[in-house]
Structure formats: C-alpha cells, structure tokens
Amino acid sequence: MKYLNIGTAPAASAVSLGCMRMAGLDEKRVDAIMDCALENGINFFDHADIYGGGQSEVLFGEYLKRHAGVRDKIIIQTKCAIRNGQYDFSKEHILSAVEGSLKRLGVDCVDFLLLHRPDTLMEPEEVAEAFDELESAGKVRQFGVSNHNAMQIELLKTAVRQPLKVNQLQFSVTEAGMVTSGMNVNMKNADSVMHDGGFLEYSRIRKITIQTWSPFQHGFFGGNFVDNKDFPELNAKLAEIGDRYGLSKTGTAAAWILRHPANMQLIAGTMNPDHLSDVCKAADVTLSRTEWYEIYRAAGHCLP
Ligand SMILES: NC(=O)c1ccc[n+]([C@@H]2O[C@H](COP(=O)([O-])OP(=O)(O)OC[C@H]3O[C@@H](n4cnc5c(N)ncnc54)[C@H](OP(=O)(O)O)[C@@H]3O)[C@@H](O)[C@H]2O)c1
Q: Whose CA is nearest to atom 29 of ligand 1?
C-alpha cells in the first residue's frame, strides 16, 4: 500500500474504503470487508450521514465495538449537508449532522468532515462558526469539501480558518473530465468545456488532495465499466496492461488513477473482499506515461 501525506498521523492509505454500500450487509460481511481492508493496509474510511439513511455509519460503529483497538489505528471521514432534497450549510445543520454521525459511529471525534455538495445559499461565516465549534470541542480534527470547484473553496476560505485539505470528486478513466478539459484548452469541441473550474490544477497548487469517488463507474452510477460490453477497447487494454503487472482489469483502472502526479486518493466502493484486494494491488504499481495515455485513449478519449 502507498500512503499519502494529507496531514494525518499515520499517513493516509492511497486506497480508501468508501462505505456508501455497507448499509444492508450482515455482520459477517461487514467483518469480511473490514478485515480485508485492514489486512491490505487501508486505514482510511469514507462515510456520509446519508449513506443508507445512516445505516452504513451504524454498521461501521458496531464493527468498531466488536474490534477494540481498531479505532485508534484508522482515519474516519464523514460528510454532511445533503438533506431532504436540499443542501444545507447552516451552522445548526452542520452541528446536528456531526452529532448524529458521532453517535452512529460510536466515536468521540471524526478525523475529517467534508461538506458533501455545495449549498448555493452558503454563508461562509456560518460554516466558519460551525467548524470552529466542532474543532474546539474536539469533535472534528480536519475539514474538507466534496464536489466543489476552486472558486467555491476560495469563497469558503474568506471566513473558514481551518485548511480545507480534501475535495472528493467523481473521477475514473471513463469520467475523466478533470484531465480531459485540461488537454483541450483553446479548442472548440465538447471536451474543452471545463466542468469543475480547473480543480485539478488548483488542487495541485493549493496542496488539496482529490479523493476520487466511483472510480470504476461510468456515468452517474451507470454501472461498472469493467467487463462491460459497451467498453470493449478499454477492457482489452486494461487486460493487456494488467497482465504485465499481475493486476486485474479493475486493478489496472485503479493504477491509472493513482498514476496521476496529483496524488489522488482512490475511494473504492466494493463490499467484496476479492475485489478490494485487487484494487489494493494497484497501489504498488506505477504505470508508465505511455500506458497511462493508452488506457485513456482506449476509453474513447481523443487527444487534439
Ligand atoms: N462525494 C460524493 O458525492 C460521492 C458520491 C458517490 C460515492 N462516494 C464515495 O465513493 C465511494 C465509492 O463509490 P462507488 O461505490 O460508486 O465506487 P466504485 O468502487 O466505482 O463501485 C463499486 C461498485 O462496483 C461493483 N463492482 C463490480 N465489479 C467490481 C470489481 N471487479 N471491482 C470492484 N467493484 C466492482 C461493486 O460491487 P461489489 O461490492 O460486488 O464488488 C460496487 O457495487 C462510496 O462508497 C462513497 O464513499 C462519494
């Protein structure tokens, strides 16, 4: 496993386990996926108050209760601010959402709190008050955002004192807008449209870690692109390059993300231990520049 410096001690595993799909698992399956994560060197776990209506955090909290000593070795992240068909960055909502997560997880504090999706009605001063209270009460150690563009982060920073250390965004070889727009600058084609406000470059300048959600999904939860008949060229290329490194196709798609010098942290959502072990192997492989571009083009992207 490779580890990233995002201001935590210990350093954060480059592959994190996203717990969105944990809701609904029985105790045996929770133990299996968690044990597999820890055995593979994963120490970073991503949650949100809304995953499974709170059930994912509950199951995770029960795992921690059954396994004394694990809490102190891992980094727990949760997200808040999506509720009832709206986004809510009010101080009152942020504070109560964190209380709910702490209770469900059965912990005194979370290591990271992210604002899940930007609330256009945000008042940066209110967010700042909430963050200050959570930090001084020892309930949240560090802060970040999710699905934000660069200017939205700058807006928050007009009042928020704490560094915003991470931004969680959808990114995969098929959903690669972040790199594609940057390679189509000054063009008039659809690929030149920047959908995220230049976040990739901004994050590298500001030392913000990009966490990649849905690393193996096409579209917005369109299903896995691995072994998907709609992506024959991509699957053939993932298999060909994966063979060189002893990686599965999924592992190769993970290595493609981890190869980027922005040092992204991959958030894997599988609840299958074999699949998770495949993904983790990618952290020990560095694809060549040529391999990276071959996979990118096999996904259907064109270079101008
Ligand atoms: N910030 C946001 O807005 C946002 C949005 C969505 C997700 N997230 C975070 O990102 C995490 C990952 O999202 P995701 O679950 O959509 O990502 P993903 O890892 O791309 O997809 C996981 C899904 O792919 C399936 N899959 C099928 N074959 C697989 C294989 N060979 N290897 C791996 N997975 C395979 C998994 O099923 P099996 O379990 O059977 O393997 C699972 O249903 C979430 O848990 C959550 O923490 C954040």
A: 275
Centre of ligand 1 from the C-alpha of residue 214, in Å? 5
Q: How far is CA 25 from CA 46, 52, 58, 65, 261, in A?
A: 16, 11, 11, 17, 35
- Indicate which residue's Cα is closest to atom 5 of ligand 1: 213
Give, using CA atoms, the residue closest to atom 25 of ligand 1: 270
Give the residue whose CA is nearest to atom 30 of ligand 1.
Answer: 275
Judge contact between 248 and 282, C-beta under 8 A.
Answer: no
Give the range among 34-38, 138-142, 216-220, 286-290 with minimum mean pLDDT. Answer: 216-220
- Pocket residue to mutate for ligand 1, from 272, 279, 281, most atoms within 8 A of Cβ: 272
Q: Is the pLDDT of residue 197 over 90?
A: no
Q: Tell me which of 3.40.1260.10, 3.20.20.100, 3.40.50.150, 3.30.70.240 is the CATH number of domain 10-170.
A: 3.20.20.100
Q: Which atom of ligand 1 is nearest to the CA of 275?
A: 32
pTM: 0.97
- Tell me the CATH number of domain 174-304, given options 3.20.20.70, 3.20.20.140, 3.20.20.100, 3.40.50.2300: 3.20.20.100
Instruction: Say whether 51 is catalytic.
Output: yes
Q: What is the C-alpha to C-alpha distance for residues 90 and 94, in angstroms, rounded to an integer?
A: 6
Catalytic residue among 51, 63, 202, 296: 51
Q: Are strands 140-146 and 110-115 parallel, antiparallel or unpaired?
A: parallel
Is pLDDT of 20 > 90? yes
pLDDT digits (tens, 9 = 90+) for 64-122: 999 999 999 999 999 999 998 999 999 999 999 999 999 999 999 999 999 999 999 99
Rounded to whole angstroms, how far apart are CA atoms 72 and 69? 6
Pick the atom of ligand 1 nearest to 249's CA: 31
